[in-house]
Amino acid sequence: MTIRLYDLVGSDPSRPFSPHCWKVRMALAHKGLGFEAVPVRFTEVAGVEGGGGRTVPVIRDGDTVVQDSFAIAEYLDDAYLDRPPLFEGASGRALARFVESWSQRTLHPAIVKATILEIHAFQDEENRAFFRASRERTFGKPLEEVQDGRTEEKRAATSKALEPLRATLRRQPFLAGDGPMFADYIVFGAFQWMRCVSTFSFLEGDDPIQDWLDRCLDLHGGIGRALPAAA
Question: Locate the GST N-terminal domain: which residues (predicted)?
């Protein structure tokens, strides 16, 4: 039975943009598992697989339903032991947890502050209203005031925060070493999110992170690159 992936989209159902859903897309491709993507908009998320306050990504694999990108990756490794691993044992999972924490506390906020108006514009009319109301409630100010991450000062600060990533990728082709694992897909998901919704970038053309991103886009038959960048 084909795995079903509930995947966040905006007004165009062919352009999935969630960083967390992209982690799972890459993880499924890494394991060589076919899947059916079910496009879901923000206002539909809570009703996925019976509801109960769900968030996406969610997968259904036969009778098994799993929510949360990291939990899905762990499930895939445990359920499909004969496929290429996403982690190198328990220590690999623990290190990937660190990468996830770093990404969500360093990279994700910078992307939001640089692109939140474009994420808003990416939605259909109903979901623009939902997105604006929910995010302005979270931030306590209008989206127009949240998007302050494009000044040269903010861009330079983000670039400096990415230096540990850059230094690692000067030494090796992937975060996991010679080949990619789930830690790579965690960070790739964030950059793919930005690539899907905006033409803005924190990276210069000769940045080792950009070289790594290009390698990730070409992985697994180019599943990442098959989605055109925002124009």
Answer: 8-84
Q: Which residue is it, tokens 């789930």?
A: 182
Only one residue has tokens 């830690």, namely: 183
Instruction: List domains and CATH numbers for the chain.
Output: 3-79 (3.40.30.10), 89-222 (1.20.1050.10)
Of 15, 60, 20, nearest to 36 by C-alpha is 60
Give 7-37 as a DSSP string. EEB-SSTT-B--HHHHHHHHHHHHTT--EEE
Nearest to 115 by CA among 197, 204, 186, 230: 197
Closest CA to 187 of 205, 153, 152, 161: 161
Residue 95 carries which side chain, given as an amino acid letter? L
Task: Work out the angle at residue 116's Cα, subtended by the Cα atoms of residues 110 and 118, and round it to the nearest 5 degrees.
Answer: 125
φ/ψ of 37, rounded to 5, equals: -85, 130
Name the token pair of 132: 């604006």
Could you report the per-residue pLDDT of 15-44, keeping only the tens digit for each? 999 999 999 999 999 999 999 999 999 999
The pair of three-digit structure tokens given for residue 155, joined into one six-digit string: 């861009």
